[in-house]
Amino acid sequence: MTGPIGVGFIGTGMISDTYLENLTSFPDVKVVALGDLVPERAKAQAEKYGITSHGSPDDVLTHPEVEVVVNLTIPAAHAEVTSRAIAAGKHVWVEKPIGLDRESTAALLREADAAGVRIGVAPDTVLGPGLQTAKRAIERGVIGTPLFASTSMQYQGPDLFHPNPGFLFAKGAGPLLDIGPYYITALVNLFGSATKVAALGLKGLAERTVKVGPDAGSSFPVEVPSTMSLLTAFEAGQQAQSLLSFDSALARQGIVEINGTEGTLVLPDPNMFEGRVAYVRPLAEIGIDGPAEQDWIEIEQEGVVAGRGLGLLDMVRAIAEGRDHRASGTVGYHVLDIMLSAEESAERGEFVDVESRVGPIASMPVDFDPFARTL
Fold it and tell me: Any keyword NAD (predicted)?
């Protein structure tokens, strides 16, 4: 591959703005076409970002300069659109989750392998300087051997701000499949493969009300649990407890804490590309008045801050360099497998084995610069 690499979008809804802002600023890629089921929406985004070609999804798939398709369709369409892009000979970057079931998603990996193309899967926030700084700190041993993690994301839910929130409470979403990929992908990047999971789920409300936009006041059904609690065991011996909720009046998001034999590390919000990384050492003693206040040791963030599209950029550079890309289809499938196993556990009331595995995921080089031309 020689750059800039041609990129086409299928799906130009709400999330396309952040992708377009970044991918139009990375010298190694060039956005050449936008497509949507509503071509007028693709046209509006094309005019906004100075992209000459726009139209339907088929217009993107047949565009001769498109080498990578960015799949920003709704979750229920992810697998179908990705499969069509592979059949057209395109590499694919797909928003999370990679699919909604194991069978069709595993088929995508086989199709891509047979076609000689790659699949990259969001989230790529884990490749940002925030989590990568923490990952390198763990690899240096600043907290000794990692033992267990605690994560939390809880608030009232996306119906607070989204004008069409029904799909976020439908099959393929809810807090587990919509927000869970950020936290679970972070844990997989830090700990490796998960082996089993137990979960509990509940629906705070059977119906929700649209609060903003032209449909404000209308109701929609809640199809999946709006609160999930997970216990996850990892192959290397670590454990994690995770809360994901759209039912909490108390907003508490971005909590990721890794506890080790020699300290506890706090990480940035895994939905963000940067943030605070700091740790505490174990106390030497506890006095009669209880534990003393612990001193936080701050770790300076390393790396260039970018945004969504970073994983796609790592993928195209990896193709050129002949190496594995980090936010791969295999990682995306394993994260999906964990989440589906959690759903099954909540339904059955027992631990469920996670069958898939991932290999080691390399840390990002400190000098990885999205704004440099390398291709």
Answer: yes
In words, the CATH class of domain 126-298 is: alpha beta
Neighbouring residues of 207: CB distance < 8 A, sequence distance ≥ 6: 219, 220, 221, 222
Distance, in Å, from the CA atom of 165 to the CA atom of 51, rounded to the nearest integer, reads: 29
pLDDT tens digits along 50-65: 999 999 999 999 999 9
d(CA 33, CA 64): 10
218 alpha carbon, distance to own chain's centre: 30
Structure confidence by residue, pLDDT tens digits, 235-272: 999 999 999 999 999 999 999 999 999 999 999 999 99
pTM greater than 0.70 (yes/no): yes
If you ran DSSP here, which 8-state letter would residue 305 be given?
-
Measure CA 355 to chain center.
20
Beta bridge partners of 90: none
Q: Is the peptide bond before 123 cis (omega within 30 degrees of 0)?
A: yes
Instruction: Show Cβ contacts of residue 268 under 8 Å, excluding neighbours closer than 6 positions.
Output: 130, 131, 134, 254, 256, 274, 275, 276, 277
Cβ contacts of residue 280 below 8 Å, gap of 6+? 263, 264, 294, 295, 296, 297
The secondary structure element, H or E, covering residue 341 is: helix 329-348
Retrieve residue 93's tokens: 């970057």
| Per-residue DSSP letter, 170 | S
Rg of the chain in Å (alpha carbons): 21
Q: Collapsing DSSP states into helix, strand and coil, what is residue 8?
A: strand
Per-residue 3-state assignment (H helix, E strand, C coil) for 75-138:
HHHHHHHHHHHHHCCCEEEECCCCCCCHHHHHHHHHHHHHHCCCEEECCCHHHCHHHHHHHHHH
Fold of 5-124+308-330+338-353: Rossmann fold (3.40.50)
Residue ranges of the domains in the chain?
5-124+308-330+338-353, 126-298
Q: Name the nearest CA neighbour of 335 among 123, 73, 83, 129.
A: 123
Pairing of strands 352-353, 194-202: antiparallel
